[in-house]
Amino acid sequence: MATQKMLKFVSTPREMPVKRPATERSEDFHEIYREFADAKAAEQASRCSQCGVPYCQSHCPLHNNIPDWLRLTAEGRLEEAYRVSQATNTFPEICGRICPQDRLCEGNCVIEQSGHGTVTIGSIEKYITDTAWERGWVQPAAPVMERSESVGIIGAGPGGLAAADMLRRQGFQVTVYDRYDRAGGLLTYGIPGFKLEKDVVMRRNALLQDGGVDFVLNCNVGQDISFDAIRGKHDAVLIATGVYKTRDLDIDNADAGGVVRAIDYLTASNKVEFGDEVPDFEDGELNARGKRVIVIGGGDTAMDCVRTAIRQGALSVKCLYRRDRANMPGSQREVQNAEEEGVEFVWMSAPGSFIGHVPGIAMQAQEADVDGPTGKLAQIAQVRVQKMRLGAPDVSGRQSPELIEGADYDEPADLVIKALGFEPEDLPKLWGVDGLEVTRWGTIKANFQTHQTSLPGVFAVGDIVRGASLVVWAIRDGREAAESIAGYLTGEARIAAE
């Protein structure tokens, strides 16, 4: 009986794929986990309790049919496991690598609640799809019938690519426009290789291209082509740009030399890994080698920055976060990985000001003037760190950080990376679009069921609607929008309750 292969959580302990030693992995940008072998993946999958109400599935934004593909893996029916997995998820091998499973599926596993340790869902998901690629089960879209209607997708991130895949499989003509020279968005340029090796993303891009998706790269909408021109060329348009505008600090010397944005820093690092020439990396501006690095922020982007700096050969890496470890928005698994690799976390602390020195002039601190007597830009020398305590909860229920007066101190720094989160660009203004409604936060206003915007035939998904969020939510939005767009183009649109 199939059930005899399951319910092994009582006798079989939880086991993750072996992590490469910190001393070894901090020298390169390869992924940190070794692969599961067939037997080990089957053994770990067999720990699933096959519960009647699978919380793992209900807490997954894509509602992946996790218990079924765990059972199929335990039974050695890997191709069927892959088919079930990809039925609800366009990029399972990517989600298996970068989803914060500890907050989603694994964090809600029933056997975890009973003290037996969660099933290693993410690692098995990654294993299933990597095996599918190796064995040739992953095939490009081959629509039964080509359709004449075309869709223009602005943004080649996970939301846009998920929609492109779904629409292409139904035979629609799909063109994806993106500002970068490679598709993938943050999957390509925002997430470091030690979490998501780039050939994993590139082979997905190639698969979409093989399936008939057209890519127009190095294309800035509003500069190289107007939004109206894209609307004119296509029967429907999907906006999936993501959010790239960095939140900033309102402190002294905020623009000192050596103070950089996380997105610029990570993009440069990823481009170097691709073998591209990056002048700002070569001249040291976006390179942590030999520097005392301070990263400001506590989300997953901050974790990507601190771990990248370690790999680039930083002298020291410290992460300032204004709350404590328990209130950190980033994955606890990532914090642990970073600590193992030599990152120091300075909890309950925030920058009060940046103190610079002017290159070529004695190292006296200049707190207010960014421009020195020679007109040169002040170079970061120290960060004035303010100590915090947690006060009353804010509207979200999290305790608000409060300043402890008189507890400031100065921390030496050669490179400061701001990882403070992202905000939407003003797209209506940037693109010169009339009638595209936005919320008070600047995100595009779209129907939560159909993803239709205020403009007819224009849809929007992902972070540009939600604000900065997870890749898995962008994939869900993209798949849902593809369904709505197909209905809109064929006259079978489902009517959504406003």
From TrEMBL:
<dbReference type="InterPro" id="IPR009051">
    <property type="entry name" value="Helical_ferredxn"/>
</dbReference>
<keyword id="KW-0004">4Fe-4S</keyword>
<dbReference type="Pfam" id="PF14691">
    <property type="entry name" value="Fer4_20"/>
</dbReference>
<keyword id="KW-0411">Iron-sulfur</keyword>
<protein>
    <submittedName>
        <fullName>Glutamate synthase [NADPH] small chain</fullName>
        <ecNumber>1.4.1.13</ecNumber>
    </submittedName>
</protein>
<dbReference type="Pfam" id="PF07992">
    <property type="entry name" value="Pyr_redox_2"/>
</dbReference>
<dbReference type="GO" id="GO:0051539">
    <property type="term" value="F:4 iron, 4 sulfur cluster binding"/>
</dbReference>
<dbReference type="InterPro" id="IPR006006">
    <property type="entry name" value="GltD-like"/>
</dbReference>
<feature type="domain" description="Dihydroprymidine dehydrogenase">
    <location>
        <begin position="26"/>
        <end position="136"/>
    </location>
</feature>
<dbReference type="GO" id="GO:0046872">
    <property type="term" value="F:metal ion binding"/>
</dbReference>
<feature type="domain" description="FAD/NAD(P)-binding">
    <location>
        <begin position="151"/>
        <end position="478"/>
    </location>
</feature>
<dbReference type="InterPro" id="IPR028261">
    <property type="entry name" value="DPD_II"/>
</dbReference>
<keyword id="KW-0560">Oxidoreductase</keyword>
<dbReference type="InterPro" id="IPR036188">
    <property type="entry name" value="FAD/NAD-bd_sf"/>
</dbReference>
<dbReference type="InterPro" id="IPR023753">
    <property type="entry name" value="FAD/NAD-binding_dom"/>
</dbReference>
<keyword id="KW-0408">Iron</keyword>
<dbReference type="GO" id="GO:0004355">
    <property type="term" value="F:glutamate synthase (NADPH) activity"/>
</dbReference>
<keyword id="KW-0479">Metal-binding</keyword>
